[in-house]
Amino acid sequence: MNDEFYIGWEDRAAPGVRQTIRRTALALLLAAPLAALALAASQRMIGSSVFEWGNLKSFSGVLQATPYPHLIVFRPGNAAAARFSMYYLVAPWKFGLNTDEVAAFDGNIVMLKGTLIYRADQTMIEVVKNSIQLDPTKSPPADLPATLPLGRQTLAGEIVDSKCFLGVMNPGQLTPHRACAIRCISGGVPPVLLVRQKNGPPLYLLLVSADGKPVNRQVLDFVAEQVEITGEVQRQGDLLILRADPTTYRRLK
């Protein structure tokens, strides 16, 4: 009987054992990077959100203070359906813009500096403190986007804080982000209902009360949870708004 076998205390393994070990080690070395590439390719992307940190830009548009501060920016061109872009406005860190502080600019063309935050067709500006000022050289256009009623609808989705979800944090959604989202929304960041459609892009609906007021404090218990909301849906430019009483929100299990 001349079968080779491994003896641990010998200095050298038998020739056949050495050859088997070399082949196995080489195969593992080749397989490791391939396995890593395959694993990376199989991962789902967290999201295509962007925060242009450190890249300050200047903006000009009509500031509207309610229901949450936002900027209406004129688009060049003749396409009536796309003449304006709607940008959420927030303060640095975990805060929204104070509505009372920007009320004096409501309905006027302003200039401001800030940093873009965006995801898909949703855009936000983190405004530099004290950078908002009236533009005395321009008057607001007479044909600002009207608020169009889209009817009463029942929608299911997740309540997210718009600032983190659009790009400041990634992922800015679901239970792992709950504590941060609560802090942002309680600080005035606009709450948004994220509706994930099966056969289409996600919908983003700005949450307001039935009478069109901010609902930051009222929605904190529902943040990062799946909820069902029935209310009146409106469109202002490319901004969707859902008006509903937060006491009627229903958790989905």
Helices and strands in order:
Elements: H1 15-42, E1 49-51, E2 57-64, E3 70-74, E4 84-91, E5 95-96, H2 99-102, E6 109-119, E7 122-127, E8 133-134, E9 147-161, H3 162-168, H4 178-186, E10 191-195, E11 203-208, E12 226-236, E13 239-243, E14 250-251
Parallel strand pairs: 4-7, 11-13
Antiparallel strand pairs: 1-6, 2-3, 2-6, 3-4, 4-5, 6-7, 6-8, 9-10, 9-12, 10-11, 12-13, 12-14
Termini separation comes to 68 Å
Beta-strand proportion: 35-45%
Radius of gyration, taken over Cα atoms and rounded to an integer in Å:
27 Å
CATH level 3 topology of the largest domain = OB fold (Dihydrolipoamide Acetyltransferase, E2P)
**Second-tier CATH architecture of the largest domain:** Beta Barrel
The overall pLDDT, averaged over residues, is 87
Order of helices and strands: HEEEEEHEEEEHHEEEEE
Number of strands: 14
Total helices: the number is: 4
Summing up helix and strand content along with how strands pair, one would put the structural category as: alpha+beta
Work out the helicity level.
10-25%
Task: Provide a descriptive summary of the structure in words.
The protein has 253 residues and is α+β, with helices and mostly antiparallel strands. It has helices at 15-42, 99-102, 162-168, 178-186; strands at residues 49-51, 57-64, 70-74, 84-91, 95-96, 109-119, 122-127, 133-134, 147-161, 191-195, 203-208, 226-236, 239-243, 250-251. It has a 5-stranded mixed β-barrel. Strand 4 (84-91) and strand 5 (95-96) form a beta hairpin. It is elongated and about 95 Å long. The N and C termini lie far apart (68 Å).
